[in-house]
């Protein structure tokens, strides 16, 4: 789920992704007691996440679980939890995490927008993080920045037009 962390960058916020497997091989060193670790899991039932909670908690990070199953070992071990209701997956055999990941992404986007509002993020601040996209260009570029000058325009004069055109019979 890289969309939500990317949205953090556009709001000028530091973020990192932490894979549970990589965390146990040194990457947990990025966590401090000033960090918030959000754990996303449909079922909560992975040994790696439960082990990660113990290690991250020992480092003093604030732990938030987002799951579709209420009252489980992960939500109990975390400081806070959010239940993201899920009736069933879109997958015909109800296994592939299609609906659950979509719900997690919508929830993450909603939180990101709420934080933007709470921080009173301006269009200019947002655009400054999008200099190459339409958002940034619409606020920072002027016509003179992209307009071709007269000496740069490809001009075809009547006198040299027919010199360049092949004659077909």
TrEMBL record:
<feature type="domain" description="SIS">
    <location>
        <begin position="1"/>
        <end position="121"/>
    </location>
</feature>
<keyword id="KW-0413">Isomerase</keyword>
<dbReference type="Pfam" id="PF01380">
    <property type="entry name" value="SIS"/>
</dbReference>
<dbReference type="GO" id="GO:1901135">
    <property type="term" value="P:carbohydrate derivative metabolic process"/>
</dbReference>
<protein>
    <submittedName>
        <fullName>Putative arabinose 5-phosphate isomerase</fullName>
    </submittedName>
</protein>
<dbReference type="InterPro" id="IPR046348">
    <property type="entry name" value="SIS_dom_sf"/>
</dbReference>
<dbReference type="GO" id="GO:0097367">
    <property type="term" value="F:carbohydrate derivative binding"/>
</dbReference>
<dbReference type="InterPro" id="IPR001347">
    <property type="entry name" value="SIS_dom"/>
</dbReference>
<dbReference type="GO" id="GO:0016853">
    <property type="term" value="F:isomerase activity"/>
</dbReference>
